[in-house]
Design a protein that fits this description.
Order of helices and strands: HHHHHHHHHHHHHHHHHHHHHHH
Largest sheet: none
Distance between the termini: 49 Å
Strand content: under 5%
Shape: globular
Mean pLDDT: 85
Structural class: mainly alpha
């Protein structure tokens, strides 16, 4: 049996273990260790394991992970999400489907501070779902708008997935953050359009809310000025070259804490909870990185990536057809595992192929994160669907899943736009200060 075949079998074993609910870090670590031992012998396995663990968690760039996680946790614990939701709702809540549009808008802004899809879904869901139910919104539209809006947390920077992608592919994290801005805005507008389409076909799904006067609107705007300033400082500093990603993460975490203090939403309980959540989330991410590091050593040893590149080259296919097939592959895989695991499991093999085909690494990073977004709202493993169902009382998982199709369709349109117009992701990074 050839080494590439062993690599393909190992990949299939990881997917099978994940289907049996084995934690992804353990699945990748076990298969990677056993596979490497089978190929090169178990006598050197201890050295390889130690080296792969060290290399997985030693890069200095990983310091941005706990800092951006802390920034998001401070924002969530500090109650900024409710102010954001109320502000957007004050402007569009009187539209048909306006509260669902408000949910998506608030999710986009909160996701820009939070950087986590799951945290955005849970936080906004606790606020938006009771309001939409109170006005008689259909649960399918209400829940789907929350779940879809939550995905914007991993596209609009800062994003943990962009950090992981940048470190694994040696791509500029700052450039990836800037690249996610325009696709994130397009995604937000497409989701809002999906709400408009649903309420146009079924007006009863999203009744109009009360109209607020301009005085009430400006009062609500004053409550969220700090979030806008923080977002502008973090991304603006990256764009003009004032901050490195690590420095931007530090400024963001401190700024989110300062906002919580200034708005009197800070106490020792919030501080303690924030530190615990940051530690748990960071530990989970690092544990998965270690498993992925071991598995990627095994994949490199099998030569699976090089065999895949030779096979694709021999087929003589147009590179865009190959990219379309990769998109289909990631959509299917996203139905079976969470977004971070999906990227860590496949990127070591897929990225060299993408580079060999001549695609821009920054552009592909945006495409990959968009595909990961689709996975978070696609049954049977769409994490946002499970999180929302567990967070909101009397909301069956089936109800959330039944309303999600218009938003998945909006994501498909966004992927098509990215494939047709790569400049949507590459133009802003090309104008950054070096």
């Amino acid at each position: 049996m050839s080494d590439p075949v062993i690599g393909a079998i190992g990949f299939a074993f990881v997917v099978a273990l994940l289907a049996f609910r084995v934690p992804v870090a353990i699945a990748m670590g076990i298969v990677g260790a056993l596979g490497y031992g089978i190929i090169y012998g178990f006598s050197t396995l201890g050295f390889v394991l130690g080296r792969s663990v060290f290399e997985a968690i030693s890069p200095v760039g990983l310091s941005v992970v706990p800092l951006f996680v802390m920034m998001g946790v401070f924002a969530a614990q500090g109650g900024l999400s409710r102010s954001l939701y109320n502000t957007v709702a004050s402007f569009v809540g009187h539209w048909r489907g306006g509260l669902a549009v408000s949910t998506i808008g608030a999710s986009a802004v909160f996701g820009a501070v939070c950087g986590s899809s799951i945290a955005t879904t849970a936080t906004i869901g606790r606020i938006a779902m009771p309001e939409m139910r109170r006005l008689g919104y259909d649960d399918r539209l209400a829940a789907a708008s929350v779940a879809a809006g939550g995905t914007l947390g991993i596209m609009i920077p800062p994003s943990i997935l962009f950090v992981v992608y940048g470190l694994m592919t040696e791509t500029s994290i700052g450039a990836l953050f800037i690249a996610g801005i325009l696709p994130g805005i397009v995604g937000t507008l497409l989701y809002m359009s999906a709400v408009g389409w649903v309420t146009w076909r079924r007006p009863a799904y999203g009744p109009k809310g009360p109209r607020q006067n301009w005085g009430e609107r400006w009062r609500s705007v004053r409550e969220v000025w700090g979030v806008v300033v923080l977002f502008g400082i973090v991304l603006g500093g990256l764009y003009v070259g004032l901050f490195t990603p690590t420095e931007a993460a530090s400024v963001g975490a401190f700024g989110a804490l300062a906002l919580a203090v200034v708005t009197r939403r800070f106490n020792l309980r919030v501080l303690r909870t924030s530190f615990v959540e940051t530690a748990l989330t960071t530990g989970m991410i690092f544990f998965i990185l270690v498993g992925a590091g071991i598995f990627n050593y095994f994949i490199d040893a099998t030569g699976l990536t090089q065999a895949l590149i030779r096979w694709i080259d021999a087929l003589g296919w147009n590179r865009y057809w190959v990219m379309v097939l990769l998109c289909v592959f990631y959509v299917i895989l996203g139905c079976l595992m969470d977004s971070l695991s999906m990227i860590l499991l496949t990127l070591g093999s897929v990225f060299p192929l993408v580079k060999a085909l001549g695609f821009d690494p920054i552009w592909f990073g945006v495409v990959l994160v968009t595909l990961a977004e689709i996975g978070t709202i696609t049954p049977p493993v769409g994490m946002n669907l499970f999180v929302l169902s567990a967070t909101v009382p009397n909301l069956p998982l089936q109800t959330v899943a039944r309303g999600i199709l218009p938003f998945v369709s909006a994501d498909a349109v966004r992927i098509a736009i990215l494939l047709a117009v790569p400049a949507l992701a590459t133009w802003l990074p090309s104008t950054m200060s070096k």
